[in-house]
Each structure stands twice: as structure tokens, then as C-alpha cells.
Automatic annotation (TrEMBL):
Positions of the DUF6873 domain: 4-227
Stated name of the protein: DUF6873 domain-containing protein
InterPro entries membership: DUF6873 (IPR049238)
Domain of life: Bacteria
Pfam families: DUF6873 (PF21778)
Length: 229
């Protein structure tokens, strides 16, 4: 197992993550998109159980990392850029039954491999940043609009207040961008217990059988998810 994480995550987070995987790719770009999300893997990478789709203009080092570790990927059809419409096309979330995203923003390559799934229309194009799929019908979000849609579909959705989630250049980040799920373990870029909603989330996760790994004793950092590949 390998991991991909924002290179601007703290040294403590990256060092601790290395204890759980064989190798870590510290993701970074320059001049391709907004500075605040320039190191976010979930802006350039889509992942589901069977596929990894990577933006064509993702760093060469990422493709070399995947090839070196014999990790198969597909290239998406659109480059990531500096606007909302072209910085969100890989930032969707997929489960065995659903594809969650804002209509009109999804890269065509992702739509093509998800034709058998129900497309759940969300108001937030930065979907993966804002939504975590735990397992089955269990989700966590920091977006009230997403929570409303999922609850309306009969899905269990825990709301986590995004205040106090740190991100470069903005008042707060999103909960999805702080985390990565591996089986029944959830890894956080920082410590959820430093957050006002942290104890509630901790109890919720433990109640549904999740192991919680806080990679440092710092405030949560939205680094565009932690990808396990």
C-alpha cells in the first residue's frame, strides 16, 4: 500500500504516514491552479474501487511514482486549471452504487467508467473535498447542501463544522480534504480532538467500528485528501 498527500502537510504528518505504507508521494504543482489547492491530490486525481483517473497535466513525478510501483491509472480528458469549472472535474466521489458531483463539472473519462451508477446531483462542485464515504450508507460532510441531499436519499450523513479546519489562503477548509479511508481505518491530517466537533465525530466513528489514526497533534489541515493506492 502506498499514499499520496499534499507536500505542504506538516513533516510530522508525513513521517507518521510513512509508518503505515511502503512509500509516500508528496504531491505539489506550480502555476496550474489556485495556490490554496495546488498541492491537493483530489484536484488532479479521481479514485474508486477499480480505477484511478489522473489529470493529463498532473506532475510527471506522480506518473513516475505510479509506474514505479506498478499502479495502473487512466488519463483524464481535461487539464486542471485556474477556474471553478476546470479545478473540480476530478473532485467527485464514487461508491459501488453512486457517483456524487455537481452536474456539468465531471471529467468525461470519469463519467464513462461510471455509467452503471446513479449520479447524485450535488450543489458543491468541490465534492471530494467536502464529503467522506466511510462504508455502506455512512458519510461525513462539512457542507450543509450536501448533507441535505444525502439525507433526502436516506443516507446517513454526519455533519462536521468546517470552522477551524486549516487551509492556505482561506478562512477554513473542508473535512473531506483532511482525511483518507483505508478499509475500516480513517486517517486524519491532524488531530480531530482539537476541533469543537471532534469528540462527536470520534464517538460516531468508533460506534460504527472505525479505527481513527490522527497523523499529528496539530489542527486539522485540508490538504486535498490522503489517497491510498
Amino acid at each position: 500500500m502506498f499514499a499520496i498527500i499534499d507536500s505542504r502537510s506538516s513533516a510530522r504528518v508525513i513521517t507518521t504516514l510513512k509508518e503505515y505504507v511502503k512509500d509516500v508521494f508528496a504531491f505539489q504543482t506550480n502555476g496550474l491552479t489556485y495556490d490554496s489547492i495546488s498541492g491537493h491530490p483530489d484536484i488532479f486525481i479521481y479514485q474508486d474501487k477499480d480505477h484511478l483517473v489522473v489529470a493529463p497535466n498532473a506532475p510527471v513525478g506522480l506518473f513516475e511514482f505510479l509506474e514505479r510501483h506498478s499502479i495502473a491509472c487512466l488519463k483524464g480528458k481535461t487539464d486542471v486549471g485556474n477556474e471553478l469549472y476546470n479545478s473540480t472535474q476530478y473532485n467527485c466521489l464514487s461508491t459501488p452504487d453512486f457517483l456524487f458531483h455537481k452536474p456539468g463539472y465531471t471529467d468525461p473519462a470519469i463519467l464513462e467508467i461510471n455509467t452503471s451508477k446513479e449520479f447524485i446531483r450535488l450543489p458543491q462542485a468541490y465534492t471530494r473535498c467536502s464529503l467522506i464515504h466511510l462504508y455502506g450508507n455512512n458519510y461525513v460532510t462539512s457542507d450543509g447542501g450536501i448533507e441535505k441531499v444525502l439525507s433526502g436519499k436516506g443516507l446517513s450523513c454526519f455533519y462536521f463544522n468546517p470552522k477551524e479546519i486549516r487551509i492556505r489562503g482561506h478562512n477554513n477548509g473542508f473535512i473531506g480534504g483532511t482525511a483518507g479511508v483505508l478499509g475500516k481505518s480513517i486517517f486524519f491530517n491532524g488531530n480531530i480532538e482539537l476541533h469543537a466537533d471532534g469528540q462527536r465525530l470520534k464517538e460516531h466513528l468508533l460506534n460504527i467500528g472505525f479505527e481513527i489514526v490522527c497523523l499529528s497533534n496539530e489542527y486539522l489541515y485540508d490538504g486535498g485528501c490522503i489517497f491510498f493506492v
